[in-house]
Amino acid sequence: MNKLERLTAILLMLQDRPRTSDEIARHFEVSKRTILRDIQALSEMGVPVIAREGAGGGYSLPANYRLAPLPLTPREAFLLLLALGSVNRLSDAPFAAERASLTAKLRALLPAPQLADAQALLSAVEVEVPEREQRAPYLEPLLDAIRARRWVMVEYQSAERLFTHHLFPRQITTEGGLWYCRAYSHERGEERVFRVDRVRAVSPAGEHFRAPPPPEPVPYDHPAHPEIVATLTARGAALAEVDPHLAPQITRQPDGSGELRFRCPPGELDFYARFFAGLGAHARVHAPAELRQRLAQLGRKLVDDYPEW
Hints:
There is one protein chain. With about 300 residues, this protein is of the alpha+beta class. Helices cover about 40% and strands about 20% of the residues. It is built from ten helices and eleven strands. The protein has helices at about 5-15, 20-30, 30-45, 75-90, 95-110, 110-125, 140-150, 235-240, 270-280, 290-305, and strands at about 50, 60, 150-155, 160-175, 180-185, 190-195, 200-205, 225-230, 250, 260-265, 285. The strands form three sheets. It has a five-stranded antiparallel sheet. Strands 9-10-8-11 form a four-stranded antiparallel sheet. A two-stranded antiparallel sheet has the order 1-2. Helix 2 (about 20-30) crosses helix 3 and helix 4 (about 75-90) runs antiparallel to helix 5 (about 95-110). The chain is globular. The relative contact order is 0.07.
């Protein structure tokens, strides 16, 4: 990053909130002396930087000070267009009209040479987004509920039957081309993750439903949650490492086998029972007992389904 780019970045930081010289220096990995010279350069350029000494001091900009629109570099334009293009490929991605408008504005604002440079980078880089047939028409109502911090009534088709939940949605995520909603379920009394394409209806919770916002979410790996301990063959470890959430939890042995150890909410045990059942003989679960019980139930059901063998 050259000096001009750093000066621009410092201005953006100060426009966000006041900063100390130590904080700015750490951010850019330069000396405090360099930042003091940069602040002096900004002042000489006519930028009204306010300096406050003592505890709680630092540098800031007047509340009514706004930067003029800054031109995008070809790489910045490339990153924005790449992100927009990736979202566009997701099934039922929200804000379709706004995404189309933003893409058009970006292309119109860029001078032809810069747009050509950005296009060259776009043609060389691709973010893989699996194509999915599953639709997620209730994505935006769930986003609205998150923004408004309100309960909604949701009809949800699980793998077994149709449920009605009063949900307090907290976060929308995407993985593998599918959308997921992390939400607190009033009926289950816990936070769970729901596939948005399995949502069949979203409506207001209703005037007769009276519930305060749920407690703050407990961390996924909270010490009170059950600890899953499993040993994996070399093949099992390779299969488990495909999951980006599990891969960091695997301790590999010299022969390629591994141990998997992590905590999860009790409501996730059914999911992990199906996961380990899919690994078959390449995984052996040692704890918790509840997960071993679920695996045994799945095994008995498989045997019952094929009595002739």
